[in-house]
Amino acid sequence: MNPKLRNIAIIAHVDHGKTTLVDQLLRQAGTFRSNQVVAERMMDSMDLERERGITIKAKNASFEYKDIRVNIVDTPGHADFGGEVERILRMIDGVLLVVDAAEGPQAQTKFVLRKALEVGAKPIVVLNKIDRENADPKKVLDQVFDLFIELHATDAQLDFPAVYASAKEGYATMKWEGKITPEIKAGGMTALFDTILSVVPPPPADLEAPFSLLVANLDHSDFVGRISIGRIVSGSIKMGDPVASLNLESKIETGRVTKLFSHRGMERIEIESASAGDIIGLAGLATPEISTTIADKPDRTPLPFVAIDPPTIHMQFLVNDSPLAGREGKFLTARHLRERLEKEIRTNVSLRFSDGANAGSFEVRARGEMQIAILLEQMRREGFEVLVSRPEVIFQKAADGSVLEPIETLYAEIPTFALGDIMGNLAGRKAEIEDMKPHGDNTSLVAAIPTRGL
Q1: What are the pLDDT digits (tens) for 111-167?
Q2: Could you name the CATH architecture of 5-199?
Q3: Using CA of residue 177, residue 178, residue 181, residue 187, what is the dihedral sign?
Q4: pLDDT digits (tens, 9 = 90+) for 252-294
Q5: 3-state SS string for the chain
Q6: What is the CATH architecture of 313-394?
Q7: 5, 216, 294, 391 from 388: Cα distances, Å
Q8: More confident residue, 388 or 2
């Protein structure tokens, strides 16, 4: 164990306030100077993230509280970026589940929480936005408990602490009596800080064992090249140490550590050494991929890795050969497209591409339309011009020759008066209803539906 460390992730449905909560934790932990002007939603550093109000890339930050450093990862809340979520779960020991105290747990809450519970993370439930007029924290807490049971949580995971908070206003409490008192406001986020330290266990750390790190994310610097990000599973590392990258295909690269990085708040800082349990960035190897093991010697056994859900749709990206080509963008050729897609798949593990049937075309496969839409908008802003086809579902053939297609689980919250129309619409899209639960004026519906029906 490394008692001076805690590693946590924050998971939630889109727009339930998790990024705002991270911002508030960093502020109140003293990460920023008192006179420092900081943008709202600091963790959403990409322009697209700020505009859409969603988190696309998992990012790292840290703060110190009572001499303990807490590494924190802000995870995406949309299923199309599930590849981001799955791989960072190997770096953490606890999760803050942020739930809107008015809306309750939503579809993406289930998607990410299921994966977190499967890896045995310790949950802390944060009932956010208790200052909303229609907030009902006690009712939502019951819904969260039912969700944990539905997801087959262990007895230990069912015994989760609940923190009532308003991330926007910057206060949290363990006790909720139905109103926000001056004492609650005066306490700030102290209740949440203390809960994190007491509930989330220190990372398991064998300091005497040989060095090993599982790459969970990648970054790139024009100065030091590829930066491998992950948690040190065992041992320690310092500048100049020899290292080797290993993967399950037995491909090996050797090198030396040229840079080590950690985080102070949102800022990446250079460090001289690090030990087991810490989340770091490491430069010095040219070819590591996500899921690669970095060890002290090339004869070590690669570490196991969380499987990533395969792509479900594909689209054709083609060179823009229209008469108006070159009017808005500056990158037009197939070579430009290939280089940009190769750059994307280095860090976007759930995206894949291959050459298309025709010259100048590429088949891009992804988890969903949102993921491709984000990529296209990024490329447009970078100056690329590209033609795209309609998205199509990826079919596969079974061993007996039958055709298989991806099936999604659809969670919907429907006003009861519209239930009949929605059911008819779903039937036309080949959906099969698996569960229905009325509550108040709404009905929660769970259905299995082919991806092509969405």
Answers
A1: 778 888 888 889 999 999 898 888 889 999 999 998 899 888 899 999 999 999 998
A2: 3-Layer(aba) Sandwich (3.40)
A3: positive
A4: 888 899 999 988 877 788 899 998 888 899 998 887 877 788 9
A5: CCCCEEEEEEEECCCCCHHHHHHHHHHHCCCCCCCCCCCCCCCCCCHHHHHHCCCCCCEEEEEEECCEEEEEEECCCCHHHHHHHHHHHHHCCEEEEEEECCCCCCHHHHHHHHHHHHCCCEEEEEEECCCCCCCCHHHHHHHHHHHHHHCCCCHHHHCCCEEEEECCCCEEECCCCCCCCHHHHHCCCHHHHHHHHHHCCCCCCECCCCCEEEEEEEEEECCCEEEEEEEEEECEEECCCEEEEECCCCCEEEEECCEEEEEEECEEEEECEEECCCEEEEECCCCCCCCCEEECCCCCCCCCCCCCCCCCEEEEEEECCCCCCCCCCCECCHHHHHHHHHHHHHHCCCCEEEECCCCCEEEEEECCHHHHHHHHHHHHHHCECEEECCCEECCEECCCCCEECCEEEEEEEEEHHHHHHHHHHHHHCCCEEEEEEEECCEEEEEEEEEHHHC
A6: 2-Layer Sandwich (3.30)
A7: 47, 30, 38, 9
A8: 388
What percent of the chain has pLDDT above 70?
87
| Strand order from edge to edge, sheet including 432-439 | 407-415, 442-450, 432-439
Q: Identify the residue whose tokens are 């109103």.
A: 179
**What number of residues does the chain have?**
454
Mean pLDDT of the 68-74 span: 84
Burial 67-94 (b: 16+ CB within 10 A, else e): eebbbbbbbbbbbbbbbbbbbbbbbbbb
Q: List 25's β-bridge partners, or say none.
A: none
Rounded CA-CA distance 154/260 in Å is: 37
pLDDT at 371: 83
388 close to 376: Cβ distance less than 8 angstroms: yes
315-351 pLDDT, tens per residue? 999 888 777 777 777 878 888 889 989 888 877 777 8
CATH architecture of 212-295: Beta Barrel (2.40)
- List pLDDT tens digits, range 406-448: 888 887 878 888 888 988 999 888 899 888 888 777 888 888 9
403-453 topology per CATH? Alpha-Beta Plaits (3.30.70)
